[in-house]
UniProtKB/TrEMBL annotation:
Residues 521-564 are annotated as: Disordered. Its cofactor is Fe(2+). It comes from Rhizophagus irregularis. The keyword DNA damage does not apply. Its main location: nucleus. Keywords: Chromatin regulator, Dioxygenase, Iron, Metal-binding, Nucleus, Oxidoreductase, Transcription, Transcription regulation, Zinc, Zinc-finger. InterPro entries: JHD, JHDM1_Histone_Demethylase, JmjC_dom, OBE1-like_PHD, Znf_FYVE_PHD, Znf_PHD, Znf_PHD-finger. Gene3D superfamilies: 1.20.58.1360, Cupin. Histone demethylase that specifically demethylates 'Lys-36' of histone H3, thereby playing a central role in histone code. One of its GO terms (molecular function) is histone H3K36me/H3K36me2 demethylase activity. Residues 9-69 form the PHD-type domain. This is JmjC domain-containing histone demethylation protein 1.
């Protein structure tokens, strides 16, 4: 059967040494090629003087040379069908990692069985900070109607040409060839709009990384209220108009039918909001369990990645379908692929937040260990972490009761992460001058004394944990037992009700050891897990030291029995909290 497609890497033997009058962008992205089914040589249909319509009618094409020995080309019989319907997946090519057929992804997806998701579907007005403090952000959330999200989006009939005019025709854009999952260089919005809104497309191309936050188009968009309230960059990064900052808050994604983005985790473990303006999308989600993250880390580092469908390596993969008007929040670390059944335009954006700090750090560690290029990492991740450390240090000092259990656990991980840097800055550290300078370059000017900050952050979060002041009883309001939309009741009304842990008499402090574990991080001392098995992030170990009222560290390292005792205390607190939550849910 003849194959008709675009192959910009091939050279047509009929015009290889001739200068053509066809524009370069037209040759590379719009022109029809046809392959001889005998000698497998690709040629321009125009060089063979074959109209595109004629190519569609050919079932088995023979080039002029092969016609002499094998006869003329064979034409289709009966009703003519489109080349998409006739195309077949070359499984031999798939096994060899070849990706010449852009429609193979649909065939692969149709051959798989995915689990039906059970993710929450809620109304926009329900998705508030109090809702997140109650339920956390551990699974994707679907909002079918934009009402109540307090956001502003483009009109539903907007075209790519309109977007190009507003963003600027000369704006560079990263275009992905779906067949190879690789970028095509030298595209701008004018060229992309001509392709997307044009009558013919000989390739399946996709744009998923056009950041528009500082354009007139971006100025007309307002992200959902919950995203604005959670976003670290929005709430912690100073003087965004005066200095560089992570420009990842607002993207326009433009995908044609049959586009596919292979399994990935958003950079830095950032969460994503995703609103479909036009068309539809299908997501395939894999939970970020420790086992799945290990498999993902091996998969993206494997030379056989292009030959392996990641969902085949894991136990659970959930399918979620979105249509125009739907919004979804993708939480930290979820491994996902995306298929586009219809031409679509989507507005989305990435954000770091305090409800999944541990997994954010775990993903950042995976990116470093697997040598992900800087271009594909969350910009200024370490600097953003310092701003977060400064922010939470102030809250722990002034109003620790305002923090949820998710944030308190995350602050422990953040303190460990930052202590890993300051340990290398101390005078007795064995780190090189280059390492020290790199760490200093990533510390913002607003953090004048990073060593002091990390010590205070560590001291305060451990004092909260040690004293049993995680305020699990006070964190949710009486009204939330009946209605999750209600606000938390006044702290004064609950004075004297805070639960103290009388079994704890020894104060504890967490410290990062100056060495990095060589063993797998799952064998290290772990922070107590929730029922969803939140993985311990990077392979930094920590020790537990006793300290007196003046914060003088003991010279004695903890024994295994002391470590086990502390772990047991923390696990008991978590179990008490879960039991209390179940009682509240029964009452409601």
């Amino acid at each position: 059967m003849s194959q008709v497609m675009d192959t910009p890497g091939e050279k047509c033997p009929l015009c290889a040494n001739k200068q053509r009058l066809v524009p370069l962008w037209f040759q590379e992205n719009t022109e029809t090629w046809i392959k001889c089914d005998i000698c497998n040589v690709w040629c321009h249909a125009s060089c063979l003087k074959l109209p595109s319509e004629e190519c569609d009618r050919i079932d088995e094409y023979h080039c002029p040379n092969c016609t002499r020995t094998h006869g003329p080309s064979v034409y289709k019989v009966g009703i003519r069908k489109s080349k998409r319907e006739h195309s077949k997946v070359n499984y031999a090519d798939l096994e060899n990692g070849l990706t010449g057929n852009p429609y193979k992804w649909k065939r692969v997806l149709d051959s798989k069985i995915f689990q039906k998701h059970k993710f929450r579907k809620i109304r926009g007005e329900q998705l508030t900070i109090d809702w997140v403090r109650w339920f956390g952000l551990e699974e994707p959330i679907i909002i079918e109607n934009p009402d109540g999200l307090d956001m502003k989006m483009p009109h539903k009939d907007i075209t790519v040409s309109e977007i190009a005019e507003t963003v600027g025709y000369d704006t560079p854009v990263d275009v992905i060839d779906v067949s190879t999952q690789q970028e095509i260089p030298d595209w701008n919005m004018y060229k992309w709009a001509t392709y997307f809104d044009g009558p013919k497309r000989d390739q399946v191309l996709n744009v998923i990384s056009l950041e528009v936050s500082e354009t007139p188009f971006g100025d007309s968009i307002l992200r959902p209220r919950i995203v604005r309230e959670l976003d670290w960059v929005e709430n912690m990064w100073p003087n965004k108009k005066m200095v560089e900052y992570p420009k990842v808050q607002l993207y326009c994604l433009m995908s044609i039918k049959d586009s596919f983005t292979d399994f990935h985790i958003d950079f830095g473990g950032s969460s994503v909001f995703y609103h479909v303006i036009r068309g539809s999308k299908v997501f395939y989600f894999v939970p970020p369990t420790p086992s799945n993250l290990k498999k993902y880390s091996r998969w993206i580092s494997s030379p056989e990645q292009s030959m392996t469908f990641f969902a085949d390596l894991v136990k659970d993969c959930f399918e979620v379908k979105l249509v125009a008007g739907n919004t979804m929040i993708i939480p930290t670390g979820w491994i996902h692929a995306v298929y586009t059944p219809d031409d679509s335009i989507v507005i989305g954006g990435n954000f770091l937040h305090g409800f999944n700090i541990g997994i954010q750090l775990a993903i950042y560690d995976i990116e470093k260990r697997t040598n992900v290029p800087i271009k594909y990492r969350f910009p200024y991740f370490e600097k953003m972490s310092w701003y977060a450390g400064k922010h939470y240090n102030k809250i722990l000092k002034e109003d620790p009761s305002s923090l949820s259990q998710w944030e308190l656990k995350g602050i422990v991980e953040l303190a460990l992460f930052l202590l890993g840097f300051t340990g290398k800055l101390e005078s007795n550290s064995e780190s090189t001058m280059e390492e020290r300078q790199l760490i200093k370059d990533n510390i913002p000017n607003e953090v004048s004394d990073p060593i002091r900050l990390t010590k205070r952050l560590s001291r305060r979060i451990n004092r909260i944990i040690n004293q049993g002041n995680m305020n699990f009883d006070e964190e949710e309001s009486e009204d939330q037992k009946v209605n999750i939309k209600s606000c938390r009741r006044n702290h004064d009304d609950n004075s004297g009700t805070s639960r103290k842990d009388n079994s704890v008499s020894t104060k504890i402090k967490l410290r990062v050891k100056k060495r990095v574990l060589e063993d797998d991080h799952e064998r290290s001392v772990k922070w107590a897990k929730t029922s969803s098995s939140v993985p311990r992030p990077p392979p930094y170990n920590y020790s537990i030291y006793s300290y007196d009222e003046n914060d003088r560290e003991s010279s004695t390292s903890p024994t295994p029995e002391e470590i086990a005792k502390v772990e047991q205390i923390i696990k008991e607190k978590i179990r008490e909290f879960e039991l209390e939550n179940r009682k509240k849910s029964y009452k409601s």
